[in-house]
């Protein structure tokens, strides 16, 4: 029956067959795919959960992602330290504990915590 078709009709049929084949392949792949809906308020850990699943069950992170996270971790540490220092000053909590052996070493030398500038990523 295909021998009586024009070249345009043969081309249209070939394209249609290719589309049908791709649709069947996609349908077969979709059956294997597991979908999960994560619900939660902001900052409840949805993204963290996805990242952990990616690390444990997926391909992990690329080197570029790791470099980006390294910068973010250092910035978070720096910001947390600044917050702790400001809170200690506000609450008048001393920086040193009098009974600490390490304190004896540093109390004899002047100690200054420089104010560093941090740029936003």
TrEMBL record:
Gene3D superfamilies: P-loop containing nucleotide triphosphate hydrolases. Pfam families: G-alpha (PF00503). GTP binds at residues 43-48. Keywords: GTP-binding, Lipoprotein, Magnesium, Metal-binding, Nucleotide-binding, Palmitate, Transducer. Mg(2+) binds at residue 47. One of its GO terms (cellular component) is heterotrimeric G-protein complex. GO terms for biological process: adenylate cyclase-modulating G protein-coupled receptor signaling pathway. InterPro entries: Gprotein_alpha_Q, Gprotein_alpha_su, GproteinA_insert, P-loop_NTPase. It comes from the Eukaryota. SUPFAM superfamilies: P-loop containing nucleoside triphosphate hydrolases, Transducin (alpha subunit), insertion domain. The keyword Metal-binding applies. GO terms for molecular function: G protein-coupled receptor binding; G-protein beta/gamma-subunit complex binding; GTP binding; GTPase activator activity; GTPase activity; metal ion binding. Guanine nucleotide-binding proteins (G proteins) are involved as modulators or transducers in various transmembrane signaling systems. G proteins are composed of 3 units; alpha, beta and gamma. The alpha chain contains the guanine nucleotide binding site. Belongs to the G-alpha family. G(q) subfamily. This is Guanine nucleotide-binding protein subunit alpha. It comes from Liparis tanakae.
